[in-house]
Amino acid sequence: MFHERITMSHATDSPITFYRLHGCPYCERVARLLDEFDLDYHSRFVEPLHSKRDVVKRVAGVRSVPVIVDETTGVTMAESANIVDYLESTYGDGAGTDASAATAGGAD
């Protein structure tokens, strides 16, 4: 079953959709950074089983999470380290606000 949850107050107007999994440390790393940069985003929780993550496969071509879709820039991206780098360079000061998150990488 596909789960959906609105995370920020203006989520219906949010340009960022964040595909994530409950309890995923890589997803939580991205969520912390989105919150740190005070970005509005729409969380979409996905199925724990890879074989059931068809929505993520359609959007990003992969079944792993985290995945973000940023309508402002037209970017769709997977892999937490890549997402962290992208968010920092696009919305942060680019100085590596969370260097440990950027180097940890990975996806579930």
UniProtKB/TrEMBL annotation:
InterPro entries: Glutathione_S-Trfase_N, Thioredoxin-like_sf. This is Glutaredoxin. Pfam families: GST_N_3. Residues 14-95 form the GST N-terminal domain. It comes from Natrialba asiatica (strain ATCC 700177 / DSM 12278 / JCM 9576 / FERM P-10747 / NBRC 102637 / 172P1).
